Amino acid sequence: xxxxxxxxDDTSARFCLSGPSQAFANAFRRAMIGEVPTLAxxxxxxxxxxxxxxxxxxxxxxxxxxxVTEQGTYVPQDECSCGGTxxxxxxxxxTLSVEGPGIVYSRxxxxxxxxAVPAVDTIPIVKLAKDQKVVLEARAVLxxxxxxAKWQPTTTCGFKNYPMVEISERCDGCGRCVExxxxxxxEVRNGRVAVIDNRLEECSLCRLCERACMSTGIGEEPAITVxxxxxxxxxxxxxxxxxxxxEIITGxxxxxxxxxxxxxxxxxxxxxxxxxxxxxx
Length: 281
Description:
alpha+beta, Gyrase A, domain 2, RNA Polymerase Alpha Subunit, Chain A, domain 2, 2 domains, 4-stranded antiparallel β-sheet
């Protein structure tokens, strides 16, 4: 298996994964979405809320605010020694006290741990009129996206097979396929259609170019064919700011490795039991 990064920064990445099956690629995608733990607000204690939002709606909006998470600083609540009652190892507390008029933003949440701040400080929570106010305490805990979407570290995470575009000698350079291509990856060059340099990966595999070529009456088969490589995939990942994209990718790969090790250990254990039973027989 080989990873080739085409673009990466703290919030997004585009890379090519070569070698594995489509089932592994999908497991990798699901792991990035649902198995990399992040912080999210789980419990809210509201002392005063005279805003236009009900308490439940206010708590729901707070839960969807992404929070910067340093890997290794916190442990999942179900694995903590406190037994899920809540402590500094499995969560962080926030306070919020704002009086109108004005808009309450995510930056108004004051964390107990200065490292666990909202990833985006301009997320609007509620608009307050004159004399309206919100006073509350909130607690964020570490968990995974498979439990609830608010713990998902990604906003976009998907993949597609790597495209292959082949143009035969029968191409007469009419340009119909160039006009139909929605991603503008084709051009007429030296009397024939060709793929624009560094644009092949933008192909969406829609095959509109094939239909356009057939509509010219060129024959029973189009002069341009679009296929996909079976064991090569293009991934696009965008994070919500709670974790750098590099840590999301690394965390997902570590999760898959750990699950694989556990499965191998269980299979070996079962095989050993079976062997002992056969010897006893």
